[in-house]
Amino acid sequence: xxxxxxxxxxxxxxxxxxxxxxxxxxxxxxxxxxxxxxxxxxxxxxxxxxxxxxxxxxxxxxxxxxxxxxxxxxxxxxxxxxxxxxxxxxxxxxxxxxxxxxxxxxxxxxxxxxxxxxxxxxxxxxxxxxxxxxxxxxxxxxxxxxxxxxxxxxxxxxxxxxxxxxxxxxxxxxxxxxxxxxxxxxxxxxxxxxxxxxxxxxxxxxxxxxxxxxxxxxxxxx
Length: 222
Fold this sequence. Notes:
Blueprint: E1 4-5, H1 8-22, E2 26-27, H2 36-52, E3 55-56, E4 73-79, E5 84-87, H3 94-97, E6 102-113, E7 118-129, H4 137-148, H5 153-162, H6 169-181, E8 190-192, E9 197-200, H7 202-207, E10 214-219
Parallel strand pairs: 1-3, 4-6
Antiparallel strand pairs: 2-7, 5-9, 6-7, 7-10, 8-9
Helix pairs in contact: 4-5, 5-6
């Protein structure tokens, strides 16, 4: 059997089919499980196994930091109750210029069935966020406003430090020089400072299909 090469278009198309099928599948392994990380690992692994039956692709590892390094796409799985997850902190610049890779986000509502002791992961939304849209919404909006209002390097440094971007003044100056050369694209994630970034997806869910680079791959009939 000739394996197909996985592209981003194929990844999104298969994610839609997978989401529909998974939403109908009763899984005994997940019954009573409340740990979001365990649910996320289950769904990610199942999605990769599903793809492996038809496609060739490079699998990510902890060193590469993304699930599909050949496509520079990372898979995120999150509950609709609190749509967020963590991701490795590489540089404060990610908050301004984006994570450096795209995301495919499965947003689920887990329903336990006590009668047959199974759980169903009802996938409500599957959303693809292109790499250039993965910066922080408020940070990029503020910087873009400063630039639109004749802001200079000092204004940018003050804004970054005021927003507690995890940099010292010298690094903020370096980033400001970069911003003046290349205006950041508006991002749509909410990225909270922590030892790891914490990504929040509420706005992405709201804006999917309305903004360039934020694509509704799948949406349940709610």
